[in-house]
Amino acid sequence: MASARKGARPRTPAITREALITAGLAVLTREGFDALSMRKVAAELGVQAASLYWHVQDKEELLDLLADSLLWDARKLKTDGDWAENLRAMAHAYRCHMNTHRDSARVLAGRIVPGPNLLYVLDTALGWLRTAGFSNADAAYATRMLATYVQGFVLQEQLPRSSLGPHGATPEAIGEAVTEAFRSAPVDQYPNVVALADFVGSGSADDQFAYGVDRLIEGLRTRLVGGG
Amino acid sequence: MASARKGARPRTPAITREALITAGLAVLTREGFDALSMRKVAAELGVQAASLYWHVQDKEELLDLLADSLLWDARKLKTDGDWAENLRAMAHAYRCHMNTHRDSARVLAGRIVPGPNLLYVLDTALGWLRTAGFSNADAAYATRMLATYVQGFVLQEQLPRSSLGPHGATPEAIGEAVTEAFRSAPVDQYPNVVALADFVGSGSADDQFAYGVDRLIEGLRTRLVGGG
DNA sequence: GGGACCATCTAACGCCGTTAGGGTATCCCT
DNA sequence: AGGGATACCCTAACGGCGTTAGATGGTCCC
After folding, report:
1. Where is the HTH tetR-type domain (chains A, B) (predicted)?
2. Per the CB < 8 Å rule, is B148 touching A202?
3. CB distance B149–A144 less than 8 Å?
4. Which of A92, B1, B111, B120 is the most buried (most CB within 10 A)?
């Protein structure tokens, strides 16, 4: 371990962009977004925090690197089927991939990183839609809409923060606390919330996600038959 | 100013939950989410940071307070019209309100605070949908879907972070940098992205938002005629 | 007048992102 | 072969952060 230290250049640098990403994802998965610090990532690489600044300008830039790597490589996606099936499969694969990394949605949140993975996904979806007969504007808007929905959904699904319930509660526990809060709201003021608490709460995330994706796609289909 | 200080209880406490919210929103609007610290909020109230912990358990709890206050009071919304018009108006009002506060979407992001404002909005939307003939599950799913979309959209619209472009760039500048990145991507690999760069980028946010909301509502409408 | 308690204070801990500046191994040029 | 340039990592430090412990002093009730 403590051999080639003390300011050496060991032929192949200890820190590369790839290593940064790997280490960052490791810390993220193990400790979560709030604990993702430059010092922790550096430690993961057996290195001092300040050394990271040789490879990266900011923490922001590190997060940008992580962000693109969290947009999975969509090349693995099977693309037989019509535009609707393909889009639906993509949405589900995207969500599924994001949920393999703790707090991934918070890394992505409000970040647009035109890295290779994003470019490929966008290009593929745009291609499907244009081929299907959507106008250019429709194709572009639809693609972004879908991305917005999926990211927004996963962000809520991973339930990053809330002071409800026990302090370091799991997403599921917080979700239950929210449902319970809905259920016990004043019935006279909020009858619908109380009546539908079990649906409105965070339960049955899979169903909710599928429902939203299907609604989006059906909404798109109405643009198609109208001529475009 | 420096009169009734030094550990006094000045009859009406200097810090109340309302004052906390006001001060928090002031700091947020003036300096943005990243600069929203307990110390700054305390300074806004002419008080030491530690004093806030008498009224609030965490910074998380303070953010929860801010979150509910960022869900505007929907009682002001006019509700004549059918379910589709009402829902559309609500979505636009929600977005509009969020954009009156800098970084509001980041406060809301991944946070579910069953405060009075959220409960009212939810209950109203659920009521519209049930009255229109949607099933309970559909009403609940649809409501959450709409909320997810609006929040996700505003989160991207406010473009919180990115190391693209100049460091402290405005959202618009970053948006242009993203569009430019799309436009100058390798044409042979990403022909659709390059061709539609102007649409795919962050330009014309109003159009994009309206498009998405309309698609969602059309998607919902298909559930209605099918019988529910 | 005196105790209880409310609401604020001061002081400090350990963590954070980031910068400045030092030092050594490797490469290139002569 | 020698020497300067460069790449890559180090140590040390700064100021800011969230949070806690404990002191302090007004205000209220008996």
Report:
1. 14-74
2. no
3. no
4. B111
- B211 — contact with chain A (CB < 8 Å)? yes
- In whole angstroms, give the CA distance from residue A158 to residue A170: 9
Say if A207 is an interface residue toward chain B (CB within 8 Å).
Answer: yes
User: Between the CA of B49 and the C1' of D16, what is the distance in angstroms?
Assistant: 13
pLDDT of residue B164: 74
DSSP A196: T
Tokens of A136: 């250019």
CB atoms within 10 A of CB A167: 8
Mutation site, A83, A157, A162, A167, interface B, largest B CB count within 10 A: A162
Residue contact A218–B219, C-beta within 8 A: yes
Rounded CA-CA distance A85/A214 in Å is 10
Question: Distance between CA A192 and CA A4 in Å, rounded?
Answer: 66
For A103-146, the pLDDT digits (tens) are 999 999 989 899 999 999 999 999 999 999 999 999 999 999 99
